[in-house]
Amino acid sequence: MTLADWRLTWTQLGLACPDAVFAELRGRYEESHRAYHTLQHLRECFDHFQTARHLTERPAEIELALWFHDAIYDPRRSDNEERSRDLAVDILSRSGVVADVINRVEDLILATRHAAVPADPDARLLVDVDLAILAAGPERFAEYEWQIRHEYSWVPWEDYRAERSRILTQFLNRASIFSTDWFQQRFEQPARLNLERSLRNLFVNQRP
Q1: How far is CA 160 from CA 20, 34, 150, 152, in A?
Q2: What are the pLDDT tens digits along the chain (208 aa)?
Q3: How many CB atoms lie within 10 A of CB 116?
Q4: Which of 133, 121, 149, 129 lies closest to 69, judged by CA?
Q5: Where are the alpha helices (DSSP H) in 13-156?
């Protein structure tokens, strides 16, 4: 992700771009403890978003939410989305973004907790963008699995396997992994195949 990408998001909102914030965000996504929640993930999210951009009501707000949704990431904590939301609110408030936009961006960021299917159409699209990695091709999906394990390398294998199994099963038990027709039609089947294979591998392999 480049400064030009960051500036384009702000241009769409008709606001002056806080260039210094871009350097801060980039630095966060490049933190040494990250393996998956990096600039690679951010770029993949934006790439997927561009394919479905025409379906959104407020595309610039989704872009802002994407920029900030993993701005704070500590795998040892469970409140990363809330802390990322707080950072976004602080920066957007100081940058002259109006309250209504900030409120919607807050809700979009919190939707990436994936606790429930959002009611808002833009939030549904955002969470699908965030989950699109689940439908990646074999090589990228294998890399993604390694990246997730790397971020949780401090967790003993048996504990990691149990929690990862719970998460994968939770997604597979959904009527649909994806919330929008656009992503369901394109990604539902490959995502289910990936998750089913991943779940099997957790119990075939003694180590990742």
Answers
A1: 38, 17, 11, 8
A2: 899 999 999 999 999 999 999 999 999 999 999 999 999 999 999 999 999 999 998 999 999 999 999 999 999 999 999 999 999 999 999 999 999 999 999 999 999 999 888 999 999 999 999 999 999 999 999 999 999 999 999 999 999 999 999 999 999 999 999 999 999 999 999 999 999 999 999 988 655 5
A3: 8
A4: 129
A5: 19-29, 39-52, 59-68, 80-94, 99-111, 121-131, 138-151
Question: pTM for this one?
Answer: 0.94
Q: Are 70 and 79 in contact (CB under 8 A)?
A: no
Q: Kindly state the tokens that stand for 30.
A: 């490049």
Q: Tally the C-alpha atoms within 13 A of residue 81's C-alpha that lie toward its C-beta.
A: 16
Our separate counts of H helices and E strands in the chain read 10, 0
**Residues in the chain, overall count:** 208
